Amino acid sequence: MKFSYGQPGDEHRFLGQDDLFPSSGLLNFLLQYGQDGLDALDSNPDDQLQELLEQLIEAGLIERDEGGNLRLTPRMVQGLQHKALLEIFRDLRPGIKDGHAVTAPGRTGERTDGTRAYQFGDPVSEIDIAETIRQALRRPRIEPAPGEATAGIDLQESDFVLHNVEGVSDCATVLLLDLSGSMARYGRHIAAKRIALGMKALVARRFPMDTVDVIGFASIAEPIPDKDLALIMPRPITTRQYEIRVRVPLDQANRTHPHFTNLHHGLQMARLTLARRGAANKQIFIITDGEPTAHLTQSKEGVGQTLNLIYPPDPSSTQATLQEALRCQQLGIRMSTFALIEEYHSMDWVGFVEQFTRLTRGVAYYCAAGDLSGTIMESYLTGKKRRQSLG
Q1: How many CB atoms lie within 10 A of CB 309?
Q2: Distance CA 325, CA 264 (A)
Q3: How far apart (Å, rounded) are the C-alpha atoms in residues 111 and 108?
Q4: Strands (DSSP E) along 205-302, which ranges?
Q5: 3-state SS, one letter per residue, for 347-362
Q6: Where are the domains of the chain?
Q7: Are 363 and 384 a contacting pair, CB within 8 Å?
Q8: Which residues, 6+ apart, have CB-to-CB distance to 241 below 8 Å?
Q9: What pLDDT tens digit does each residue of the chain (391 aa) get?
Q10: Phi, psi angle pair for 26, to nearest 5°
Q11: Does domain 169-382 have CATH number 3.90.550.10?
């Protein structure tokens, strides 16, 4: 085997991980335009673009499906998650720890100040040796009889003390992504997708006991598989009418407007998803930029549900959403709302967020799309020892 060495910058240098993955510009393009952007690259006659696509196919980052259309491979999805995680952590404040802290001392996690008495079943790796020996030496000693050997340190069970450690608990999270038409503005959908990708990577690497399920909601809610997450897009706006009242069976939702905000359906799906998870802690993160403009009702025939699209927003959608949120809260599910507020001229919907937060005893964060990644990841990593409602 032969090796050749050269100065940094030589053409023979070793290729790093970043050299073997698409540029940030291409990744941002895919996040911004989704599957339509990928299809546009495929149909572009430019020779350099076609050469780039062939290189990506050879590298196993994209592939063609049975119909000849381009799609991302699992390797590309993992790479996108990794890139998103790195970008998010660059935005985090120094000192944010990667754990879910609880108030009671635990048996795992990072050490904290102080010690406590040993209890049966505690891990011996956390024994404070120095303090344990001091405890034994403080206890009155029985002097040996004349002619007997001097006894060493007499350790008893009551002498053993352990370091206090930060309790760490598993957590099941559902991330509800607003995919209504307005999310296409101000790069909101890009920030939301980057968060989802980054959380997927973080959980897989650092918290294997945790789970993150992603559900997108617009006129209806649907789970988003990992393979589709990077290319998912807000629903197109199909009407500009000022007043809309539509009722259709839920199984016929594809026949009407797709771009409304049905948080009610999203919460329903999140509750059912978390019911299948066995984690000690369960929570829902909601990323949205507006109040509900859709909800579900039981059909008159008693079979199935009816989709109601209503604009301007109607109290019936608000009431249905709040009832479902209360049902989640009563099951012990913690609620966190991340409200995107770039449009200061239309802030009436913030009143809904405050009402939602008070009812569920959750927390609300108001931020722009550019601040979303740091805000939501810090909430996930640090947890909340004490949650209180607004107002």
Answers
A1: 24
A2: 8
A3: 9
A4: 211-217, 221-223, 244-249, 281-288, 294-298
A5: CCCHHHHHHHHHHHCC
A6: 18-72, 102-142+152-168, 169-382
A7: yes
A8: none
A9: 444 555 555 554 444 444 556 777 888 888 899 999 999 988 988 888 888 889 889 888 899 988 888 999 998 898 888 888 877 766 555 544 444 444 444 444 555 566 777 776 667 776 777 887 787 778 776 666 666 656 667 777 777 887 776 545 678 999 999 999 999 988 899 999 999 999 998 888 888 888 999 999 999 999 999 999 999 999 999 998 999 999 999 999 999 999 999 999 999 999 999 999 988 889 999 999 989 999 999 987 777 899 999 999 999 999 999 999 999 999 999 999 998 887 655 567 888 999 999 999 998 988 888 888 777 877 777 653 333 333 3
A10: -70, -40
A11: no
**Six-digit token pair at 361?**
């005893």
- Residue 64 dihedral angles phi and psi, to the nearest 5°: -105, 140
Q: Which amino acid is located at 337 in the chain?
A: T
Residue reference for tokens 């503005």:
185
